[in-house]
Queue: 2 jobs
Job 1
Amino acid sequence: MAGYLVEDARKVTTHRLTEMKQQGKKIAMLTAYDYTMAQIVDGAGVDVILVGDSASNVMAGNMTTLPITVDQMIYHAKSVVRGVKRALVVCDMPFGSYQVNASEGITNAIRIMKEAHCDALKLEGGEEIIETVRTILAAGIPVCGHLGLTPQSINKFGTYAVRAKEEAEAEKLVHDAHLLADAGCFAIVLEKIPAALTERVCREVAVPIIGIGGGPADGQVLVLHDMLGMNKGFSPKFLRRYADLHSVMTDAIGQYVSDVKSCDFPNAEEQY
Ligand code: KIV
């Protein structure tokens, strides 16, 4: 059994994440979308739980994150919050809920915070959304940035390939990271960019940088269903599978089917 000792059982705050970066302590972040999984993820010592809009893919079966709504994100975030004692819970603002203007962004941000009871929000983008980020921060809502491969812009990118390999895009990413950090974001997710660029941003920017497919950073995030091996068809290079739950669950369910059909279940002890 892996040693997942939690050094500090107090509720994780954005302030503590800053301290962790300063002290060189790594931040472990994972997604969760429901109460039961959130209880397990929290109990195993994850520092930050992201109620990602990847719920659109892994929970609802959509091809992209674009269709998920504010109401659906609130439902998932509320369920997660009920299962969490220690981790900081961050909820993604879904596509369309903050891109129109700062006024709509802050209205939706306040609604998510009030109804979901999460601790912070995550928004994708840099300079294009900086006024909205500042407005949300000014309302006292902690914001996590997200740069690099930003799945809400998949129709603009046209591919899920590695971002910021060219100098111009890399320089814009560094510029955006500084803008978000200077605005007051408590952390920034960097998705699918070259490891050398992640290393540069971690060095230049004071706030914690959380990587996914970006090499070593101040912390890492993965989609829960992917790292548990529930999703057989998704195998990007950056993904480490910690279990093969697809096989474990298929075997268990297959055994149940067989037991019912052979009248082995329920037996004499499994009835009243
Ligand atoms: O929605 C999500 O799961 C995310 C992570 C991939 C960072 O944004």
Note: Strands lie at 27-31, 48-51, 88-92, 120-122, 143-148, 187-191, 209-212, 219-222.
Job 2
Amino acid sequence: MNKNKDKNRDKNKNRDKNKNKTQRTQIIIIGAGPAGLMLGCLLDLAGIDNIIVERQSKAYVLARIRAGILEQTTIDLLCEMGAGERLKKEGVPHHALILAHRNICTPVRLPELTNGKFVTAYGQTEVTKDLCDKRAANGSQTLYQAENVTPCDFDTTQPYIHFEKDGGTHKIACELIIGCDGFHGISRQSVPQAAIQTYEKIYPVGWLGLLSETKPVSLEVVYANTPRGFALCSMRSHTRSRYYIQCALNDRVENWSDDAFWDEFRRRLPPNLAEALETGPSIEKSIAPLRSFVAEPLRFGRLLLAGDAAHVVPPTGAKGLNLAASDIYYLHQAIRAYFADGDEAALTDYSTKALARVWKAERFSWYLTTMTHNLSDNAFDEKIKHAELDYVISSKIAQQVIAENYVGLPL
Ligand code: RFL
Ligand code: PHB
């Protein structure tokens, strides 16, 4: 009995100690997704101290299945921070994307239309793992399972965060707080409404995705429009496929057995692909809504936003992860300038430069989504969509515009 009392007293003492102890670092990054981890690795390279605080466990973060297609500038950035070795060996180059319409497949040849550029299939899960390994090798601190993270006083020169972890409350003071905590994160929500402008478009459909240990039906990504809705064929490796179908926004994964998915997916493929399709048990199935969203600006005093915390695109153009990478490219340069010579303007310029690229990717993702999905009951909209697809399929110039955006606009 007394022993327990002593134990509890010690526990409370430790909690009180934690409460009063303020840790310090130069940069706090909220969120250990690709944006947060990439920034952490680049700051390590520049000798700038940083701590990442993440709400989920490391195992949870490493298990998330998301993006699959990387632009060359994203790959270059990962290589620069020393997280590109496995990607160089295991990434699968894609030299075309395929548009399927009226049961015909039309390749949009990327290198031919973009002076030799192409994209690479390499799962976001693998990118996250490589970045985590690099961070561990750098010896930098990531605090997982940090609850109720709150950015404070970022309108002053002494910002800090507080959070709860392992039964204690903690405070970390810093120079800058970087919100890399995704669309539902706390960073953007902490900004006073009058200081932020948001732009949003919600599409009336979602994507049902399935991952399986089967040979991919196509070596290039296929974007198919059919009277039954959109379908997409992608891969994670030569033995692992990632497929998606457009579904209703309120649909639920539980409504889809594997067999129901494969039946519907096959019906949306042109006959040559439908015949070649290999099916098997799903490793993962999930539904994601389609959304376009941008918050402006990206700087609020000593709080800056990057990646999905600031903007979201529908996945059709494969731009989300790549935009997170380009934000981080501009942001790490701004942070270096700020620490080298106190250049405050560099932080504001980050917002302007990153948003200019973001809006172009928003336009492209919206365009490709509108052209390949069944979104409208309006017969005129449907006619225009088919006219657009027919035009793109018949025009090298229209294909060049798609290819230029798909491989990624220059930084
Ligand atoms: P993330 O990956 O959402 O990471 C945010 C992290 O912050 C944590 N967090 C918090 N931590 C502390 N306190 C809080 N209050 C917190 N709230 C959240 C979260 O747990 C998480 O760990 O954002 P980030 O780093 O900006 O990365 C963005 C990308 O993940 C995203 O844009 C892409 O996945 C989008 N995307 C694709 N992008 C591509 O470039 N190519 C693709 O082929 C592609 N395909 C896709 C996609 C997204 C999809 N879904 C599921 C929306 C396919 C799909 C189906
Ligand atoms: C994927 O492989 O998950 C993927 C590929 C292309 C897209 C979206 C997602 O446009």
Note: Residues 1-18 have pLDDT under 50 and may be disordered.
